[in-house]
Amino acid sequence: MRCRCCDKNLSDYESTIKSSITNEYLDTCISCLKVIDIHYVGRPDLEEEVNPIYQKEEDYDKDF
Asked: What is the pLDDT of residues 23-58, one digit of tens each?
């Protein structure tokens, strides 16, 4: 699936994004959504793909 605005390939998370008002799929990438300032919701289990956790607690160096 591709973004309606910029024609970029959508990630799995971006493909699940819906308008928080109309509950319709937006088919728009995160970059374009930030520019047009639309409130949206997506699947939380796929959000890590867009907002990765850079260092999980178990990955911290415990030998400071």
From this structure: 999 999 988 988 998 888 888 888 766 655 444 444
If DSSP codes are grouped into helix, strand and coil, which group holds residue 19?
strand
Contacting residues for 21 by C-beta, under 8 A, at least 6 apart:
39
* Distance of alpha carbon 24 from alpha carbon 9, whole angstroms: 19
Phi, psi of 11, rounded to the nearest 5 degrees: -75, 170
**Residues 50, 52: Cα–Cα separation, whole Å:** 6
Cβ contact 6:26 at 8 Å:
no
DSSP 33-63: HHHHT--EE--GGGGGGTS--SS-GGGS-S-
| Helix residue ranges per DSSP H, 1-64 | 12-15, 30-36
pTM: 0.67
